[in-house]
Amino acid sequence: MFKLFLVIESNDLSNEMLVWVVGVILIVGAIALLFYQRKVGRSLGNELAQLEKIQKHNIEFEFVLKAMRLCTWHVDVAERTITYDNDYRDRSDCFMPSPGTPLEEVSNSMVEADQQRIAKALEDFCEGRMESYHEISRVKIGHLGDYYWTESYATVSARDAEGKPKSIVGTSMRIDERKAMESALVEARNKAEESDRLKSAFIANMSHEIRTPLNAIIGFTSVLPDVQGEDERRELINLIQENNQKLLTIIDDVMNISKIESGKEPLVMSTFELNEILTSVADGFVPKLAEGVKLSTMFAQGALNVTTDLNRLMEVLTHLLANAVKFTQQGSIIVGYDAPQGKRMRIWIRDTGKGIAPEHQERIFERFFKVDEYIPGAGLGLSICRTMAYSMGGSIGVESKLGEGSTFWFELPI
What we know:
alpha+beta; single chain; 23% strand; disordered N terminus
């Protein structure tokens, strides 16, 4: 019986120890699980923070792309394909290929003048012969020759073991406004340079043209009191008056150009009978004709009422007729017009003078240009004609053969 008691007591102790061991294990496991959960919680917290940070960066990145109106793309160098990832350009006609498009289609989308340059730059960059990519080019729109300007940047995003590019990322943006501004600035600069050139030419020419009649006036006036003979006195007076008229003509020409080009001389429209005006202007030049030269008119209609600026029309006619009279020493001068076409008509003056060489016909309307420097004149008359014709909404030109004569014409809306 005593032995049975000892066995029972020994079993109770074993069970109690087993309970304690199991309890300790459970407590240790619970503590370990708690620490593991805390570690996992911290890890999840860090991952969530990273996700929020990435999401924030993505939002900021997207905002920058939208603000800059950029598109982003990447190139698979091994496959030589391009994929556009995002496009925030503000036009719907931009080049936007489907994913995995062959890279050569990028250069083919450019205007012909840029294709070879862009193809070479892309190939050099893919082969690692260039450290960076920056190109400005023109991308075709449709089949009518239209295009838009684009500027692209790219960099290598991954390299292989040999250091050659595996993947390339880049951005592109439209720069039409910038190019338009650059063109406007270049045009403004060219106009400023041209204005400076014309100012220098004006000073050089005017100093000579004004000085010539002025010296004659001063010289003849100074000797006039000493002249005794009436015929000689009358001849000097005529020369003084002639040079006075030359000086006045030069000043009038300069004033006319200045007023018209400054826009301070508005058009004054009126309706008048054209045949009468042309005949009147032509009759005024009859006394100035060289001996044997005949001046006549040739009108397409017996009478024609037109509406335009009468003063400017007569100014153009006067300069063109004066030019014809100056260079026609034999033959004839004809003033006429063709039948109106719609609401426009062409008036012309045909002469049998010395004519104009082909290489001078484009420049003949330039300010101060003179084919023959020995012929008197400031070289402003035809320039004034062009300025006035343009101001009336018309055009002007010349048809001429050297040694056979010229036909100056100007078209006007009537």
